[in-house]
Write a structure and sequence with these properties.
This is Mannosyltransferase. InterPro entries: AAA+_ATPase, ABC_transporter-like_ATP-bd, ABC_transporter_ATP-bind, P-loop_NTPase. With 281 residues, the protein is α/β, with parallel strands linked by helices. It has two domains: 14-88 and 164-280, P-loop containing nucleotide triphosphate hydrolases (Rossmann fold), CATH 3.40.50; 97-163. It has helices spanning 57-65, 104-114, 119-132, 148-160, 178-193, 206-212, 248-280; strands spanning 14-24, 30-41, 46-50, 72-77, 80-81, 89-92, 166-170, 198-203, 215-219, 227-232. The chain has a six-stranded mixed beta sheet with strand order 6-7-8-3-9-10, sandwiched between helices. A four-stranded antiparallel beta sheet has the order 2-1-4-5, covered by helices on one side. A hairpin with a 7-residue loop joins strand 9 (215-219) and strand 10. The termini are far apart. The mean pLDDT is 94. It binds adenosine-5'-diphosphate and magnesium ion. Residues 23, 31, 33, 51, 53-59, 222 line the site of adenosine-5'-diphosphate (ADP). The site of magnesium ion (MG) has 2 residues, from helix 1.
Amino acid sequence: MTQPSQPGSSNYAVELNGCTKEFATPGGGSYFAVRDIDLKVEPGRFVSIVGPTGSGKSTILNMAAGLLNPSSGTVHSFSEPVHGVNRRASYMFQQDALLPWKSVIDNVSLGLTMAGVSKAEAYDESRRWLEKVGLKNFADRYPHQLSGGMRKRTAVAQAWIVNPDILLMDEPFSALDVQTRQIMENELLQLWQESDKAVVFITHDLDEAIALSDEVVILGAGPGSTVVGSYEIDIPRPRDLLDIRDDPKFVELHREIWGRLKVEVSKTYESAREEEESDAA
Ligand SMILES: Nc1ncnc2c1ncn2[C@@H]1O[C@H](COP(=O)(O)OP(=O)(O)O)[C@@H](O)[C@H]1O
Ligand SMILES: [Mg+2]
């Protein structure tokens, strides 16, 4: 008989076991954002989490990042329990977190200088990264002087320069126009393929999730969302994201996963409508 493995006994980059998150509500009650989440991400894997609005995607990422403690359950990263900020991970938010009063190169250098690297060395490394993300000539600009795509490139360089083992990305490209977004997705995949990093990528866009990932995890409707499905994406790599939506394998996977996701999206839509109707009554 095989024993279930102990939490933290395997070397997963991210390992959530039975994680539930309950938030206190203003009226003195409580709200279960997610319930019994099991999520295991091996080093070097690209895993996306897809779910309707409010299904707890950001809550899960925040638990993996150590920014939020689960109410019950455990979080491990490379066999270590995560208590406080997960130092093996870099975080990329939907709204980029660039400091407006710092130039591009100073924003990118930040992680290194805060880790005690000398400014000269941090600048050398930042220049290498700015070149990699196509911003060689923009080192001295300030964030407000950049386009949306350029700000994202700066944020990518900022997250990667510290060489984390894990990238936690919360709908990083959702605010971009469709073309810029596809370019950024392609660039992200290229960077990732040259690396051995684990990526946990949150999106509400199933196309994006399938195109990028090795595995797509589907969250159910809230409250108390939990994982309702997990799909292996065996489309060969390297992938060209500009053409991938025509790939028969993509079409087939999309049909199958959407069949499951659709149910959860409809539930979320129905309960939002009921709430609106009872508010109106
Ligand atoms: N700090 C908090 N306090 C109370 N409720 C919260 C808090 N953070 C998130 N929630 C609630 O938990 C649910 C899940 O939120 P979130 O993880 O942001 O979902 P998603 O990222 O999938 O849209 C939502 O209903 C949200 O309102
Ligand atoms: Mg969110």
